Amino acid sequence: VDNDRRDLDMNNKDIDADKLTRFVRMNELRLVTEYNPVTAIGVMQGSLQLHLLLITDKMSPKHPERMRRYRAAAELFKGKILFILVDTNLKSNERIVSFFKLKKSQLPALAIFHAPDEEQDVLTLDEVSVKRVQDFCNNFLQ
After folding, report:
1. What is the torsion angle, in degrees rounded to the nearest 10, for the CA atoms of residue 20, residue 23, residue 28 and residue 32?
2. How far is 114 from 81, CA to CA, in rounded Å?
3. DSSP classification of residue 9
4. What are its GO biological-process terms (predicted)?
5. What span, in angstroms and rounded, lies between the C-alpha atoms of 60 and 110?
6. Which domains, and CATH codes, for the chain?
7. Radius of gyration over alpha carbons of the chain, in Å?
8. Alpha-carbon gap, residue 50 to 71, rounded angstroms
9. Residues 91, 60: contact at Cβ < 8 Å?
10. pLDDT tens sequence across 3-35
11. What percentage of the chain has pLDDT greater than the value 70?
12. For residues 96 and 86, what is the distance between their CA atoms, to the nearest angstrom?
């Protein structure tokens, strides 16, 4: 996943079915899943019920650095929060921006959403940093 290989030490005597299942679940998804009509169903029906969306313009010159930092933050919450990229250039993603009551002028933004009870929070930001993403997620989890 994400061009990174993860190995589970099968020589370890403590490996059981639960540990193997946890390893596969934590590593089966990309660190950041791009939201589009093809991935939408999988995102909503996935085992993780907490979603963090980075709503941004993929065409921005700042996009590669934003994604590097967003992926680094995703590492910290692997298995707990599904990190999603929402490209504002896709017309099909306009509904998401309006769902979180955001305007183009407020982007980029982070939006966190807990699917079962539809609890949500939004953070508009000038720049994505690992610390800001981490703080935002931890505050929501508390």
Report:
1. 170
2. 9
3. -
4. protein folding; response to endoplasmic reticulum stress
5. 16
6. 17-141 (3.40.30.10)
7. 16
8. 16
9. no
10. 566 677 888 888 888 888 777 665 556 788 899
11. 91
12. 8
